[in-house]
Amino acid sequence: MAREPLRDGHGRAIGDLRVSVTDRCNFRCQYCMPAEGLPWLEREAILHFEEIERLVALLGSMGVHDIRLTGGEPLVRREFPKLVARLAALEDVHDLSVTTNGFLLERDAAALVEAGVDRVNVSIDSLQRDRFYEMTRRDALPQVLRGLEALGAHPQVHPIKVNAVALRDFTEDEAIPFADFARRHPYEVRFIEFMPLDGDHAWSRDQVLTGDELRAIIHARWPLEPEPREPHATARVFRFADGQGRIGFINPVSEPFCGDCNRIRLTADGTLRTCLFSLNETDLRGPLRAGASDDDLEQILRDAVWRKELKHHVNDPGFVQPTRTMSAIGG
Ligand code: SF4
After folding, report:
1. Atom 4 in ligand 1: residue holding the nearest Cα
2. Has residue 316 got a pLDDT over 90?
3. Terminus of the chain with fewer CB atoms < 10 Å: N or C?
4. Does residue 7 lie in a domain region?
């Protein structure tokens, strides 16, 4: 049953739901979590597949048709492809994608494709083995690249994007290798500015290497031409002037894209976040497990989304970093 489209108090229609299916991860990326990891959620605190499916179906009936599955690392959740298949079978899910660190992709690529995944983003912060290890605290680059290749064998998964978090005094040396990688492979490489969502709460503005700075490094070697921005897009995409592929820059700090934001997030423990940087969350797991009807849940969702933040305040004096870290929110 179709319901009224879900809108926020600024008139923006919500069309994109990011679902974190676990807070656990098999990597320890420096900009995300401490080497020892974080205290994981108890198993019972995590939404069951049926609960995720019910919320996705309900939001789908309210016009939220694009679903991205994230983590932590979603592929560490047991039987994850089964969840993908359940969501892919929902008539209101028009686009189903996954963000992964790629470590288990070689094992799961075929199962994910068979389950119905449409697009995949793979997070890779360096194409050099030692620097990859330095950033993720895992010697896993060869395995991740094998996973990417395994996924690349399935043309129905398109596009495949490679996301690299940009950090000052690290990513400058990755700009040309990644641009070369984007020119030689059918993957869309994007750089993402470092955001204040790290586990150590050590983020500072001077650690942000901006998209503009990276674009200048690449443009000096291979001239770039801008592509028109898609509605709700997070990335500024450029094509290589000589036709050898595209590359993108996601600049939430230096070039926020909040104006036409159509995204909301569901955390692994069942709270709704209306913005990546929300300081408030709305509990859905409680009402779900207390027997709330779909109409009850719809009202809770509408009230929460009506209060969706107009924009983030990362660049404003007095910005407060959310207590929940990126690993417990998902991309
Ligand atoms: S920071 Fe918040 S409002 Fe801005 S684009 Fe991200 S989720 Fe949307």
Report:
1. 258
2. yes
3. N
4. no
Q: Is residue 148 part of a domain?
A: yes
Q: Identify the residue whose C-alpha is closest to ligand 1 atom 7.
A: 275
58 pLDDT more than 90: yes
Residue 1, pLDDT score: 83
Number of folded domains that form the chain: 1
User: Which two three-digit tokens encode residue 265?
Assistant: 């997030």
What's the gap in Å between 258 CA and the centre of ligand 1? Answer: 5
- Please give the residue range of the domain that contains residue 59: 16-329
Q: Counting Cβ atoms within 10 Å, is residue 324 exposed (0-12), middle (13-18) or buried (19+)?
A: buried
Confidence band, pLDDT 50/70/90 cuts, at residue 156? very high
Pocket test for ligand 1, best of 229, 277, 321 (most atoms within 8 A of CB): 277
Q: What is the pLDDT of residues 32-46, one digit of tens each?
A: 998 888 899 999 999
CA atoms within 13 A on the CB side of 178: 31
Give residue 331's pLDDT band: very low, low, confident or very high (50, 70, 90). confident
pLDDT score of 34: 87
Ligand 1 centroid, distance to 261 Cα (angstroms)? 6
Pocket of ligand 1 (CB under 6 A): 252, 256-258, 261, 263, 275-277, 309, 311-312
In a domain, 108, yes or no: yes
Bridge-based pairing of strands 16-20 and 263-266 is parallel
CATH of the domain at 34: 3.20.20.70
- Is 9 domain-assigned? no
pLDDT reading at 63 higher than 90 = yes
* Neighbour tally for 96: CB within 10 Å: 22
